[in-house]
Amino acid sequence: SAHGQQIQERAYQEIQDVYPDGDAWEKCLIEERVPYVTALCQEILRYYTINPMSLPRRSVNDIDYHGVIIPAGTLFYMNAFAGDYDENHFIDPYTFNPERYLGDVDSTPNFAYGAGSRICLGAALANRELFTFFIRLISTFRILEPNNSKYAAILDAMEANNSPTALVSEPKPFKCRFEPRNKKLLESWLETSRKRAENDEHLIRD
Questions:
Q1: Which of 146, 169, 199, 205 satisfies CB 3.0 to 4.6 Å to 175 for a cystine?
Q2: Domains and CATH numbers, the chain
Q3: Percent of all residues in the chain with a pLDDT value above 70, rounded to a whole number
Q4: Coil/strand/helix, residue 75
Q5: What are phi and psi of 7, to 5 degrees?
């Protein structure tokens, strides 16, 4: 979509501003210095809630909820999707807008990893991996819609879910095009990665 292209190009320009020497491919492994890409990752996690109904929890004590007693041992499910689209928490939640995560952000920016003391232990690692992935992807390619529009991705999060009753969201099949921004630089980055992988393989064998 035109909106998606604007977001993509802004992310690319922000990467270029921080890494004008073209070293984002390597530097993203050791630092996180592009706030807009960090915000983009958080908005993806919010908008496309991968686990719409978080894993269940069981109450350990009786709970008085507005005069109704919920007994200990009751199974609870947190509707993470509803939380991520709560209009009391997110302005215009049905619009994909990474800028909502620029500036001050709540300690729980979204419910993709759950919430509270039982939040996913791998959240920090997953966020770093997402950041690295999108820095490299956007630095390397311009992502375009398919030549045939009937294969384009569905942008509505609910409609795009191929398994609406499953525990985890699964996108319906779609196609897109990847256009290298700089083929020479891409080949250099890939060669660096190949050498690192070969070296890591030798270290494991030794």
A1: 146
A2: 2-181 (1.10.630.10)
A3: 98
A4: strand
A5: -65, -45
Partners of 69 in beta bridges: 64
Mean pLDDT of 96-112: 90
Please state which of the ranges 17-26, 31-40, 100-109 shows the lowest mean pLDDT.
Answer: 100-109
Please check whether residue 42 is in contact with residue 101, taking contact to mean a CB–CB distance below 8 angstroms: yes
E strands, 10-87, where? 57-58, 63-65, 68-70, 75-76
List the structure tokens of 141.
């390619």
Nearest-10 Cα torsion for 169, 176, 97, 9: 150
Share of the chain above pLDDT 90, in %: 83
Q: Which residue has the higher pLDDT, 21 or 199?
A: 21
Band (pLDDT 50/70/90 cuts) for residue 206 is low
Residues forming a β-bridge with 177: 144
In angstroms, how far is the first alpha carbon of the chain from the final one? Answer: 49
Residue 108: per-residue pLDDT: 81
Phi first, then psi: what are they for 12, rounded to 5°? -65, -45
Q: Please give the sequence-ordered ranges of beta strands (E in DSSP) within 54-159, or none if there are none.
A: 57-58, 63-65, 68-70, 75-76, 141-144
Cβ atoms of 194 and 202 closer than 8 Å? no
